[in-house]
Amino acid sequence: MANIHDIAKLAGVSVTTVSRVLNNHKYVSADKRTKVLTIIDELNYAPNQSAIDLTRGETKMIGLIIPYNNNACFDQLLNGVLNKAVEKDYTVIVLPTQYNKEKEIEYLSKLKNKQLDGIIITSRANDWDTIIPYSDYGLIVSYDFTSHPAIGCSYIDRYSSYVEAFQLLKDKGHEHVAFTTARETESMSTQHLITAYKEVFGTFIPEYYLTGCNCLDDGVAAAKKLLHLPNRPTAIFANGDEVAGGIHMYAKSINLDIPSDLAVIGQENQPIGVGLGITTVDHQLTKVGEQACELIICKSNQKLQIPYQIIQRSSV
Question: Which residues form the HTH lacI-type domain (predicted)?
Answer without folding.
Answer: 2-56
